[in-house]
From TrEMBL:
Location of the protein in the cell: Cytoplasm, Cytoskeleton, Flagellum axoneme
Keyword check for Cytoplasm: yes
Protein name: Dynein regulatory complex protein 12
Lineage: Eukaryota, Metazoa, Cnidaria, Anthozoa, Hexacorallia
Domain of life: Eukaryota
Function: Component of the nexin-dynein regulatory complex (N-DRC), a key regulator of ciliary/flagellar motility which maintains the alignment and integrity of the distal axoneme and regulates microtubule sliding in motile axonemes.
Membership in a protein family: Belongs to the DRC12 family.
Predominant cellular place of this UniProt entry's protein: cytoplasm
Bias (Basic residues): 1-16
InterPro entries named in the record: DRC12-like
Record keywords: Cell projection, Cilium, Coiled coil, Cytoplasm, Cytoskeleton, Flagellum
Residues covered by region (Disordered): 1-21
C-alpha cells in the first residue's frame, strides 16, 4: 500500500508543475491582454484627454473672448458713463450759466420796469399838473375874456354913443352948411337969371 501512495504522490507533483506552467503562460497571455487593454484604455484616455484639452482650450478661448467682451462692454459702459457724466456736467454748467444770465436779465428788467414806472408816475403827475395849470389858465383867460368883452362892450357902447352924437352933430352941421351952400347957389343962379327949380 505505501509504494502506491508514493507513486500517487509523484503523479500529483507532476500535474502540479504542469498546472504551474499553464498558469505562467496564462499569466503571460493575461499580461499581454492586460497590456493591450491598458494600451486601449491609454489610447482611449489619451483621446479623452486630448478631447478634454481641446474642449478646455475652446472653453478657455471662449472664456477669454467672453472676458474680453465683458471687459469691452464694461469699458464701453465706462466710456458711455464718462461721456454721459461729462455731458451732464457740461449741460449742468450751461444750465447754471443760462440761469445766471436769466436772473441778471430779470433783475435788469425789474430795474428798467421800476424806472419806467417812476418815469410814468412823474410824467403822469406832470401831465396832471400841466392839465390843472392849463385848466386854471383857460379859466383865467375865459374870465379875462368875459371881463374884456364886458369892458369892450361898454367901451364900444360909449364909443358908438359918442360917434352917434358926433355924427348927429356933424349931420346937423352938414345940413346947415348944405342949406347955406344951396342958398348961396340959389342966389347965384337967380343973379344969373336962372330958376333953381328948373335945373
Amino acid at each position: 500500500m505505501p509504494p502506491k501512495k508514493k507513486k500517487g504522490k509523484g503523479k500529483k507533483k507532476k500535474k502540479k508543475d504542469e498546472k504551474t506552467e499553464l498558469t505562467v503562460e496564462d499569466k503571460y497571455k493575461r499580461t499581454l491582454q492586460e497590456i493591450e487593454c491598458l494600451r486601449d484604455e491609454l489610447a482611449s484616455r489619451t483621446e479623452i484627454t486630448r478631447r478634454a484639452k481641446d474642449t478646455a482650450s475652446r472653453m478657455k478661448d471662449r472664456m477669454l473672448e467672453a472676458k474680453e467682451a465683458v471687459e469691452t462692454e464694461q469699458q464701453n459702459k465706462l466710456d458711455i458713463s464718462s461721456d454721459l457724466t461729462r455731458q451732464y456736467k457740461t449741460m449742468q454748467s450751461e444750465m447754471a450759466l443760462r440761469i445766471h444770465m436769466l436772473e441778471q436779465t430779470v433783475t435788469k428788467l425789474r430795474d428798467n420796469l421800476a424806472k419806467s414806472e417812476e418815469e410814468l408816475r412823474k410824467t403822469k403827475k406832470e401831465f396832471e399838473d400841466m392839465k390843472k395849470e392849463k385848466d386854471q389858465t383857460i379859466a383865467e383867460l375865459k374870465f379875462k375874456i368875459e371881463h374884456m368883452e364886458s369892458v369892450y362892450e361898454s367901451i364900444l357902447h360909449d364909443a358908438f354913443d359918442k360917434l352917434s352924437l358926433r355924427v348927429e352933430e356933424a349931420r346937423g352941421k352938414w345940413q346947415s352948411q348944405a342949406m347955406e351952400v344951396q342958398e348961396k347957389n340959389k342966389q347965384l343962379l337967380l343973379e344969373f337969371g336962372l330958376n333953381p327949380l328948373e335945373i
